[in-house]
Amino acid sequence: MLFKIGVKLLKSLSKYLLLFSLFTAVLCSLVILSSGGSSIQTDDQLIVNDITQLNPITVAEIVRPKSIDSIALAITSSEGAISIGGGRFSQGGQTAFPDSLHLDMRGFNQVLELNVEQQWVRVQSGITWRDLQQIIDPHDLSIKIMQTYANFTVGGSVSVNVHGRYIGEGPLVRSVISLKLVLANGDIVMASPTQNATLFYGVIGGYGGLAVIAEVTLQLVPNIKVARTTSTMTLADYAEHFKDNVRDNPDMVFHNADIYPPDFEQIRNVSWHKTDQALTENQRLNPKEKVYGWQPKAADFVAQYDIGKWARQHIIDPYIYADDAVYWRNFEASYDVNELEPDDRLTTTYALREYFVPVENFDSFAAKMKEIFTRNQANIVNVSVRHALPDPGTLLAWADSEVFAFVVYYRQGTSLSAQLQVKRWSAEMIDAVISERGSYYLPYQLHASTAQFKRAYPRADQYFALKDLIDPNNRFRNKLWQIHYPKNQAEFSVEKDSIAQYYRNEGQTLLTIPEWYLVFNPLEYANFLDAGNNPSDFPFFASIDQYWQLYDNVTELAGHKYANNDEYMTMLQVIGISTTIEYMYKGAYENTLGRFTRWTADNPTPEDDIIAAAHRAYSKLIFDQAWYEFDFGIWVTKIWSEPDFFGHNFIRKLERKLIFSLEFGFKKVYAAAIEYAAKSSYQASDGKIYLTAHSNYALTPQQLAPAEIIASTGNKLLLSAPRWGGFSTLIPKISRLGISFEDISGNQLIAISYLTNTDKPFMPSIGDHLFDSKMVSLTSVKRVVYQVKVTDLANFINEVNRNGHDIEHIYDY
User: What are the backbone angles phi and psi of residue 739, rounded to the nearest 5°?
Assistant: First the structure.
């Protein structure tokens, strides 16, 4: 009988708990929807990104030249870094650099001279291959070497020394007759294999590190009809098939072969050879700006599911290649990359890798590739095999000998964890190709170490020596050369690389702002209680609104300036929802029963004092420790054991005991769950943040404490500092000692806030003002948030202090 009664009670309790949970969820959603709202007006006009959308870089100014003289003027009339961009199809920041003068070359796009008889053309470097094809096709001429897709600019293609599917050819340098360049001092010079040859072979494949490619003269070839043949075979048979049937065939024009994932055992070779057959496609060029419907969706299907990859190999490709195809060469060379472009790249994106292997090592490298991709569960969509003859002499040649190119097309998540996963297998692939005496291609995500780069590009020192000579002030920069060029390599690079938690994501300096609000708001509540205010008067609902406003502000800012950070965003959503529920019920309670019991009491009770002390202790701890490390239980014990149970204002005393015990008791259980989840999901922090600093004075360890000196050279210091609240206390202290900062966690920007009067606010002259937020319980004071350069941080702090304000917080990463 008792058992049956217990079961009924549990069922009834479960039903009511479910109803309560649904009510809470609906109410919480309504509160969140009515809260927040971004006050940010972002300007993404100065953000340069690439096709992957993983590398947004904010530049200082964008110049769109229309003449070669305007390029020279932009260089000579400016100082500092210059970056150069074209179609922005490189995938690792090779076209931009923070705070640089960015030359957007896409409007510099005219055909300057066409010699039909001698089959050459001179163009401005910002022209796309497709626009060039439009000019030369009526003259029955074709581009000799280019990529499969025609959206890229000629200058960008020269800068990375592209290749295509052309048999008997190789790197683009083999078709470049001459270049006209603008140097770092504004000089305009010609370069060819016979004039300024070292410069010619340095700039081609030089990734914008030496000069601006202004004009390019290219060798052309006749436009002819080509017919397609295709067959499938095992991967093990391919190298021999290529040698016997493709390599030395004088009629062969295009050739590539696709390795089918996820097994990497079968390959389909596709060849195009000269023909006199009747055309099956009368269009001479693929149409520009065509809207593609099923192709991107089919690519998504193949990428997302193993059944999609099976269907591609056994159904889609056999269907596509079932019919005969006879095209004009220009039609086959004018594909639009948009045929693969997904609807968006918010949570997933597509990217490329490419590896060059001596032809004799095809089989051994393919085996290593399969093992790495399979073990890492990499989502490889396709591996296209191409062939290239040796490079004739560029300093950063990727083909010192005859090679096969493995072009890897893959899908990845945009979250930080997904990017780290790609970085891991990318490093393994680079080691694998180097072990086969090969190289990797540089236009993609920058996951190679400098040691790997130097092994793959043994003439890099000659390239850097040339850069030292013609760009002595290191004006031409981008993210690639920021990593590998010795003059860009930061002090203490070896020591930094040895510290596992040295480098942190710069975008998190913004994303930590709402998280830190959940430190500042309890402090504000503790101050409110200490001042003898009625807890029922604290603006809990305004606090909810403030959190979500900060959330909306920083996600708007970070979304424009930084790559997706799903993990941190999820954490902010979780703590925001839990805080909303807590404040929602606490606010409702305090404004009903809490307000009634306070009305019954003529003075605050000892329980009120203990609650105020508990919130003070909590607000103090969370400045330097995770909130779940607070001992909630000891305060529940204290409120029941220290004050008398009975006594004056009994109703208020008992109500305070009960509601406080319920609140802190729940938090104790919730904290244990969150602590377990956090320690299971995230790497434990070492509690430190690392920075490089500069001091004009000799400072003792005692003066710098609690910072510690890890390494020093001359007046440069590599320091470790406490994280969180301790960091905000330390940095202003050592700034007053004459310390300036060069990087913090490898980053150049950091967010910082201070408090000022709303009537006469102080606005520093340094940094970028992001937004303001009022104190919810003291509306005469507002929080002002800036983002400043790390190199300006000390000056910013000193300016704020000189004007009678204190730094509230420096948002480490």
Answer: -75, 140
* Cis status, amide bond into 706, omega within 30 of 0: yes
pLDDT at res. 291: 85
Cβ burial 215-229 (10 Å sphere, 16+ → b, else e): bbbbebbebebbbbe
Exposure string (b/e) for 548-565, b if CB count within 10 Å is 16 or more? bbbbbbbbbbbbbbbbbb
Beta strand 348-358 with 403-413: parallel, antiparallel or unpaired?
A: antiparallel
Instruction: Specify the residue for token string 């004039």.
Output: 195
* Helical segments of 137-230, H only: 154-160, 197-203
Which of 697, 768, 684 has the alpha carbon at shortest distance from 723? 684
Q: Would you state the torsion angle of the CA atoms of residues 497, 502, 506, 507, taken in this order, to the nearest 10 degrees?
A: 120
What number is the average pLDDT over the span 572-597? 94
**Residue 294 — pLDDT band, cuts 50, 70, 90?**
confident
Burial grade of 527 (CB within 10 A; 0-12, 13-18, 19 or more): middle
| Mean pLDDT score, 578-606 | 94
Task: Look up residue 734 and give its amino acid.
Answer: I
pLDDT in tens, 172-228: 999 999 999 999 999 999 999 999 999 999 999 999 999 999 999 999 999 999 999
Whether the Cβ atoms of residue 561 and residue 47 lie closer than 8 Å to each other: yes
Written as six digits, the tokens of 138 are: 């009526």
Domain segments of the chain: what residues?
A: 1-34, 48-104, 519-681, 688-811
- Is the confidence at residue 5, as pLDDT, over 80? no
CA dist 405 and 439 (Å) reads 9
Percent of the chain whose pLDDT exceeds 70: 98
C-alpha to C-alpha distance for 84 and 64, rounded to whole angstroms: 10
For residue 107, give the nearest of 95, 119, 125, 134 by alpha carbon: 125
SS3 assignment, position 306: helix
Q: How many CB atoms lie within 10 A of CB 40?
A: 14
> In degrees, to the nearest 5, what angle opens at C-alpha 170 toward C-alphas 178 and 434?
115
Residue 696, both tokens:
């004009």
* Euclidean distance between CA atoms 328 and 157, whole angstroms: 23
For residues 460 and 452, what is the distance between their CA atoms, to the nearest angstrom?
12
Distance CA 761, CA 800 (A): 12
